[in-house]
Amino acid sequence: MTFNPIILRRYFVLGTQNVENESQFFDILTTALKYGITAFQYREKGDGALKGAEKYRVAERVRDLTRQYHVPLIIDDDIPLAHQIHADGVHFGQKDGNIIENVRACNGMFVGVSVTTQADFHRVQGVSGIDYIGVGPIFATKTKADANPPIGLEGLRHIKSISDWPIVAIGGISNQNIDDIYATGINGVAVISMISAADNVADAVINWQQNS
Ligand code: TPS
């Protein structure tokens, strides 16, 4: 799939480790797709994450569901899985191996890379084949155990000022601060807990659509 930055607008990230069980995972994902997320990242990582055949089985169902709703599917840091299930893109962290080799191995799929600091940005600057950067954490997040210190709106504005890549902001984004994020003029917002921990997932996604 050719990359269009419009898909970054409402970018939902989820793995089974973020929720109670697999059935809740698919309930939340289906609701999010139905009410208007524009991209989905399957991120099976951290304590309680599935591996091997189990991860593959869930990923296949995720592929079918995202196709049904015409929403692009991005796989976090798993190139073989992404190829196997014909994902649209792959997302990498700064510690997920060599970015030039990763980009090469993603032939046909688009590529996103996480950036926290200016040093991270300079590490990937000039690498061709990167389609967007995920900038954050913007605010404190409880969802990623090994998260870097938050960079705040100032940090986001700074990376935006030096980057030619489309930007999706992530980390600690909630109803309380999402307007400030969009106001910076970045392409989109990525969230886990704003949706996965909402009392009412449908309302949360509808609200997101109205605020974006
Ligand atoms: C597009 N990342 C940075 S903060 C965070 C994650 C997973 C936790 C967000 O949870 N950019 C993209 N994808 C990624 N996986 C990352 C960065 C890494 P919450 O919204 O609950 O704070």
From TrEMBL:
CDD domains: TMP_TenI
Pathway terms, separated by semicolons: Cofactor biosynthesis; thiamine diphosphate biosynthesis; thiamine phosphate from 4-amino-2-methyl-5-diphosphomethylpyrimidine and 4-methyl-5-(2-phosphoethyl)-thiazole: step 1/1
Cofactor: how bound: Binds 1 Mg(2+) ion per subunit.
Classification via SUPFAM superfamilies: Thiamin phosphate synthase (SSF51391)
Domain Thiamine phosphate synthase/TenI: 11-195
Cofactor(s) this protein cannot do without: Mg(2+)
InterPro entries in UniProt: Aldolase_TIM, ThiamineP_synth_sf, ThiamineP_synth_TenI, TMP_synthase
Coiled-coil residues: none
EC numbers on record: 2.5.1.3
Record's keyword annotation contains Transferase: yes
Alphabetized Pfam families for the sequence: TMP-TENI
Residues reported in the UniProt entry to bind Mg(2+): 77, 96
Reactions this protein catalyses: 2-[(2R,5Z)-2-carboxy-4-methylthiazol-5(2H)-ylidene]ethyl phosphate + 4-amino-2-methyl-5-(diphosphooxymethyl)pyrimidine + 2 H(+) = thiamine phosphate + CO2 + diphosphate; 4-methyl-5-(2-phosphooxyethyl)-thiazole + 4-amino-2-methyl-5-(diphosphooxymethyl)pyrimidine + H(+) = thiamine phosphate + diphosphate; 2-(2-carboxy-4-methylthiazol-5-yl)ethyl phosphate + 4-amino-2-methyl-5-(diphosphooxymethyl)pyrimidine + 2 H(+) = thiamine phosphate + CO2 + diphosphate
GO molecular function, one term: thiamine-phosphate diphosphorylase activity
Keyword Transferase: yes
Binding positions for 4-amino-2-methyl-5-(diphosphooxymethyl)pyrimidine per the UniProt entry: 41-45, 76, 114, 144
Record keywords: Magnesium, Metal-binding, Thiamine biosynthesis, Transferase
UniProt similarity note: Belongs to the thiamine-phosphate synthase family.
Function: Condenses 4-methyl-5-(beta-hydroxyethyl)thiazole monophosphate (THZ-P) and 2-methyl-4-amino-5-hydroxymethyl pyrimidine pyrophosphate (HMP-PP) to form thiamine monophosphate (TMP).
Name recorded for this polypeptide: Thiamine-phosphate synthase
